[in-house]
Design goal:
The structure holds three protein chains of three kinds. Chain B is mainly alpha-helical. Chain B contains 16 helices and five strands. Chain B has a single domain (about 50-330), classed as ABC transporter involved in vitamin B12 uptake, BtuC (Orthogonal Bundle). Chain C contains twelve helices and two strands, in the order ααααββαααααααα. A two-stranded antiparallel sheet of chain C has the order 1-2. Chain C is globular and about 60 Å long. The chains are: A alpha/beta, B mainly alpha, C mainly alpha. The interface between A and B is large, with 40 and 33 residues.
Chain lengths: ~250, ~350, ~290
């Protein structure tokens, strides 16, 4: 079976700094892949390379066997990649409904869809994330949690195969974070999307993820089931520092 | 093949796998019809009362017709163009030079003016992709000034110092008053055509895509909008619409001089129509156009030589006094209505 | 050939220095306030016609008139800062339009009270006559202006590098929020910047007014040069501004004396700027810092 996404030897340099160094991994259809690493490990850079926001310096990205390394972000969106941002980036002057509507029109090409049909579509996604009552409020007036949910709806409305989730927990209180995690699980069930989940908080991924990839300083440290990764010495060292055993 | 289907309240148009719905709601047409009727009756009334007013109406319509494409361009490219008058120059000079060289009438020069403006706009369209923020402001600000300089350097072609004369007039019925009336109607038709087209575009899906580009380009790109295509199309289409106004000016006055339209002062007037009318709202452009040109006319008539000083002072005061423009006084924001922010610095 | 080189060298120096005077203020506003001061064109006519107004309407002698004009300039700068820039720094479309309007109002007012035919002439000649360098003839006034320009730029650089206030302004140009946190009075410094940037322009205008032509609409032309230099120099870097001024001066000198077509001056400068922007999109120097 060809993997949904196959990343081979991805390298990204910013001037002299190597942000991503020779990272290779695969994402399989239907799984939840966790992606962890300490601050500044290059997690977001990997996502930016995969979604086409930044061009990769070298390496190859394949999706369903098609080379997408040189594609532009909108072409990748047609292929079925969608993302949310670590710091929510709504369209500030559009209402919640129209923001989702925009991505419902713009995402993967859908046949026989008029503007009004797209509106029904958008309403559905908005209802799914629980923002239907806020549909006519400007996106800049929403709260932080609502913005996260709006981003999720906006990403889902492009009908992605693979959804990149960038630190959904950041800035949410425990109750909201819990709701968000359940929302992502439901999205996976209902829409059949594969999820690539970047997270700082290990505990979340321990429950949710099927597999985990850990990176540090731009290089891959470990890959495997959550238990394997958490017990990996390199990973623990990356998080806790060298000599952690003396204090354990 | 195009298939059309009439439903109870809408026309459904299908082309291949694409589908458009055009909602027809006659109960919402009242205000539109009233305003259209008023603007169409006005030239005839002026014709009998005070023919000079038709001239003011023509300039009002034309200001509005320049400001509306500028609003479209501002939203569609997500940048503020400070040099729309460049395309007036291109379209005007194209029409004027062709008309003088070959003796062509306005209808013959129109396609050439459109074509040449389109090519010019297309040549400069990479600007909307490459230049950002203040660099875009600078480059668009300087383009018309450079063009003005070129008209003075190649005086033998462009007649930068005296202006081009002897362009075939727009129409000639033998009676100057009747000419005015017909040209007044023509300008109104142009203005309404622009208003209708741009309003339709902005309300359609393409308008929504433009709105999202105006709000956040990178996010718009990542949700699957081909931003470069939309920006270039918006830029070229709006520039061409402005270029048609240049053609109109050239044939209307049957003379064309770059020094009238290319300096910053003319651009400032257009910018004020846009801002005082209603901050890049197209209906506001019409209000602003009529307001600015009638204010100018009144000041010229009653203030005499101090008018050039008083006119900008009044506009400056209005710019500060009306945060949402004149149109904002009449219409408050509604749900799902996109009120664009104009981005200068990104 | 030798004559060409001489005239290019001499006029690069003279023109470059005077352009530096014209553009320094614009560039500093770009650097500190991070806006295009499109109203910059108002300063030029206000300098000349303000002084002329005091001289002709009130019959003041030259020096008090100049002082009076400087006071008027400061007041106008403060009004512009308080009334427009401070209020509309976030909505730049309004700000740029309003600033353009100010320039237009000043130009039209000057034109109303003293039209081109009025024969405005300021007796600010410091040295009459001409210098002769080898075969090149330069008005002494422009040479003096060039020297003053360099001295003034030196003073500005010293101010920004060595003094506390200069440091604070440089910090402010990098990040407003952090500057506020460390205790910099943003308001006062902005106002101070708005005022000191007037000095080079005023001095430059007074020096060139006996030599170059004076008309109400002259501000736009100088502002275009200032914009070109500021952009070429990287929007607000003094080093870049100095380099860019002399580069533009050099281009103008070449166009005038080697090619012999003064009409192409602005066009060639613009093409130069565009070419350099394609190669180095950030301008000649980094725009993040003032020096």
């Amino acid at each position: 079976m060809t993997p949904l996404i196959k990343v081979s030897n991805l390298v990204k340099r910013f001037g002299g700094i190597v942000a991503v160094n020779n990272v290779s991994f695969e994402i399989h259809k239907g799984e939840t892949l966790g992606f962890i690493g300490p601050n500044g490990a290059g997690k977001s850079t990997v996502v930016n390379c995969l979604t086409g926001y930044l061009p990769a310096t070298s390496g190859k990205i394949e999706m369903n066997g098609v080379d997408i390394t040189d594609m532009k972000p909108h072409q990748r969106a047609y292929m079925g990649l969608a993302r949310t941002y670590q710091i929510p980036r709504p369209f500030p002057e559009l209402t919640a409904l129209t923001s989702v509507l925009a991505s419902s029109i713009a995402g993967k090409k859908r046949i026989n869809q008029s503007f009004q049909d797209a509106m029904y579509d958008a309403t559905h996604y908005l209802e799914f994330v629980g923002l239907f009552s806020k549909r006519n409020i400007l996106a800049r007036d929403l709260t932080f949690y609502e913005l996260r949910m709006l981003e999720l709806a906006r990403a889902l409305a492009t009908t992605p195969q693979l959804l990149f989730i960038d630190e959904v927990m950041a800035g949410l209180n425990p109750g909201e974070a819990n709701k968000a995690i359940h929302m992502i699980a439901r999205a996976k069930e209902q829409f059949g999307v594969t999820i690539f989940w970047i997270e700082h908080v290990m505990a979340v991924l321990m429950e949710a993820a099927d597999r985990i990839v850990a990176i540090n300083y731009g290089a891959k440290l470990a890959e495997g089931t959550p238990d394997e990764v958490v017990n990996n010495d390199d990973v623990i060292e990356a998080y806790l520092g060298r000599g952690w055993r003396e204090y354990a | 093949m195009v298939e059309m289907e009439l439903k109870r309240d809408r026309i459904v148009i299908r082309l291949g796998t694409k589908k458009w719905e055009w909602v027809l709601e006659p109960r919402y047409w009242r205000n539109t019809l009233i305003w259209v009727a008023l603007l169409f009756i006005a030239p005839t009334v002026c014709y009998f009362v005070s023919p000079g007013l038709i001239n003011t109406m023509i300039s009002a319509n034309i200001y509005a017709a320049i400001a509306m494409p500028l609003a479209l361009m501002t939203i569609g490219t997500g940048r503020m163009n400070f040099g729309p008058q460049f395309y007036i120059g291109v379209g005007g000079y194209a029409a004027a030079l062709l008309s003088i060289a070959y003796g062509w009438g306005p209808l013959t020069t129109l396609p050439f003016a459109i074509l040449i403006t389109m090519i010019a706009a297309f040549l400069f369209s990479p600007l909307v992709i490459m230049a950002r923020g203040l660099y875009y402001v600078l480059l668009t600000l300087l383009l018309p000034l450079v063009f003005l300089e070129v008209t003075f350097i190649y005086t033998d072609i462009f007649k930068g110092d005296t202006g081009l004369f002897g362009i075939v007039p727009l129409l000639d019925t033998g009676n100057a008053k009747n000419n005015f009336l017909i040209i007044g109607y023509l300008s109104t038709v142009i203005m309404f055509a622009y208003l209708w087209i741009i309003n339709k575009v902005l309300k359609s899906r393409y308008g929504l895509l433009m709105a999202s580009i105006n709000d956040d380009e990178d996010v718009a790109h990542s949700i699957g909008i081909n931003i470069n295509k939309i920006k270039i199309i918006a830029f070229v289409a709006a520039s061409t619409m402005v270029g048609i106004i240049g053609w109109f000016y050239a044939h209307y006055f049957s003379s064309f001089a770059g020094i009238t339209y290319l300096p910053l002062t003319f651009m400032l007037k257009i910018l004020l129509v846009l801002m005082i009318g209603g901050r890049a709202q197209i209906f506001g452009c019409v209000v602003g156009g009529y307001f600015v040109s009638f204010l100018e006319m009144l000041l010229i008539r009653y203030m005499g030589p101090i008018q050039p000083v008083v006119f900008p002072i009044i506009l400056l005061a209005l710019l500060f006094a009306l945060p949402e423009g004149l149109f904002g006084l009449y219409r408050k924001r509604r749900y799902r209505e996109y009120l664009p922010t104009i981005h200068v610095r990104r | 050939m030798w004559t060409y080189i001489q005239s290019v060298v001499v006029f690069t120096f003279v023109l470059g220095s005077i352009y530096l005077l014209i553009a320094l203020g614009f560039s500093l506003i770009c650097g500190v306030l991070r806006i295009f001061h499109l109203g910059y064109a108002y300063i030029f006519p206000l300098t000349v016609y303000g002084t002329w107004m005091f001289m002709s309407a009130l019959d003041w002698p030259l020096i008090p008139s100049i002082l009076g004009m400087v006071v008027v300039q400061f007041i106008v700068a403060i009004l512009i800062y308080k009334g427009m820039i401070k209020k509309y720094l976030a909505t730049e479309d309004v700000l740029l339009t309003a600033l353009l309007l100010v320039a237009l109002i000043v130009e039209q007012a000057a034109n109303y009270f003293y039209p081109v035919q009025a024969g405005v002439y300021l007796e600010t000649t410091l040295m009459a006559g001409t210098f002769q360098f080898w075969d090149v003839v330069v008005p002494k006034q422009l040479m003096v202006g060039a020297v003053i320009a360099l001295a003034l730029t030196g003073a500005f650089v010293f101010f920004f590098v060595k003094t506390k206030t200069g440091m604070a302004i440089r910090a402010l140009s990098q990040d407003i929020y952090s500057s506020k946190i460390v205790g910099i009075n943003v308001e006062t410094l902005y106002m101070f910047t708005m005022m000191i940037v007037l000095l080079p322009v005023i001095i430059g205008m007074l020096i060139v007014s006996p030599v170059w032509s004076v008309e109400p609409g002259m501000g736009w032309m100088y502002m275009v040069t200032a914009i070109l230099i500021a952009v070429l120099g990287g929007l607000g870097n003094i080093k870049g501004t100095i380099m860019a001024s002399f580069l533009i001066g050099f281009t103008h000198a070449i166009i005038c004396f080697v090619i012999g077509e003064p009409r192409f001056m602005n066009l060639s400068a613009l093409i130069l700027v565009m070419v350099i922007l394609v190669i180095r999109p950030q301008g000649l120097a980094r725009s993040e810092s003032l020096w």
